[in-house]
């Protein structure tokens, strides 16, 4: 320490000054507990004014399911100690020193929303200037609770608060105030921002709730507003659901005959169900209102379910028409078989008559001297063989005619079905056409409504 006169100052400039000289002058040591035990004011009626500054370095995570906000922040706390001051001219111009935080009193500030204590060690030093102003700087990873509003997910904007206040001191002891305004805090946070995770930092609003009650406490609230980056959710979730809806619309081009259309619709419906399960793992269950993305998924699921029911109903009508056509065809077949049996009976009757007539046939030798005619065995055998060949030829021809008749009847029935469908088939096609027009209209109105609510059109 140097004397005050001018000549001594010149000599003092050649001397070496140390921070220990300042500490000895202030009587600051680890053993002096008076600087730690009480609030550093000479008049207890005067409150200690504590200024607070907060900078947002990074947005590490936002857990919607647990409603947690995890930022990385830098806090600067300043206050005045009435028992600390010195003249820098007496100590070679030393106007500030750094000392361990354990040797001086510090305000007991806490964050209301903090749910887990910061595991990182606090800053081991604080800074004191020659006028008695004390400053502590700390970096913290805060795990805080934040009320998430997921109605507009994934196009939502979230606002999370960090409320600083004293643990036990009232406004009679500590008056808390921010050292910067909202615009300064926002600008400085943007300059030092390192990472923002999937969020885009918008601004930081600083408000002070000054207590009017002497037993109340001042609260400084930092409101961090951020917007979600929604591109990944659009690509991985919204567009696939929309594509599945387009596939459902395209399924109307598939024929209703057979089960291909029904199985295709069921497969698409199950795919949307899987996406809904993924969404359930993202959104919090404590939301007061149903998020728009849930309405989007449930609405599309309901529309596709309605389309599935319509397909089942149309297939039922067409199957009903096919059943009636089958009964008619079975009746025609029975009538044809009856006619065929009658033809066979006539053929066999003719054959029996032939068998009776052949033995009685005679070949007579016409002459005036001989007795009445005698049967000629050779002629009888020839006639019988000739008649049997004719009968076999007729039977073969009858079978071929029956086969041709069946083929012509089948072709005629198919042509009739193609040219003139049944009654229930006509009803099903008309219903399918009307439903498709209404379905496309309802889907378009629903998508426009959802996108307008999301403010993306």
From TrEMBL:
Membrane topology, as annotated: Multi-pass membrane protein
Residue stretches making up the Neurotransmitter-gated ion-channel transmembrane domain: 238-451
Residue ranges of coiled coil: 387-414
Keywords on record: Cell membrane, Coiled coil, Disulfide bond, Glycoprotein, Ion channel, Ion transport, Ligand-gated ion channel, Membrane, Postsynaptic cell membrane, Receptor, Signal, Synapse, Transmembrane, Transmembrane helix, Transport
Main location: membrane
InterPro entries named among the record's database cross-references: LGIC_TM_5-HT3, Neur_chan_lig-bd, Neur_chan_lig-bd_sf, Neur_channel, Neuro-gated_channel_TM_sf, Neuro_actylchol_rec, Neurotrans-gated_channel_TM
Stretches assigned to the Neurotransmitter-gated ion-channel ligand-binding domain: 37-229
Keyword set includes Signal: yes
Subcellular localization, as worded in the UniProt entry: Postsynaptic cell membrane
Molecular functions per Gene Ontology: extracellular ligand-gated monoatomic ion channel activity; transmembrane signaling receptor activity
Listed Gene3D superfamilies: Neurotransmitter-gated ion-channel ligand-binding domain, Neurotransmitter-gated ion-channel transmembrane domain
Pfam families: Neur_chan_LBD, Neur_chan_memb
Residue intervals passing through the bilayer: 231-250, 291-317, 434-454
Cellular component terms (Gene Ontology): postsynaptic membrane
Reactions that this protein is recorded to catalyse: Na(+)(in) = Na(+)(out); K(+)(in) = K(+)(out); Ca(2+)(in) = Ca(2+)(out)
Function: Forms serotonin (5-hydroxytryptamine/5-HT3)-activated cation-selective channel complexes, which when activated cause fast, depolarizing responses in neurons.
Name used for this protein in its record: 5-hydroxytryptamine receptor 3A
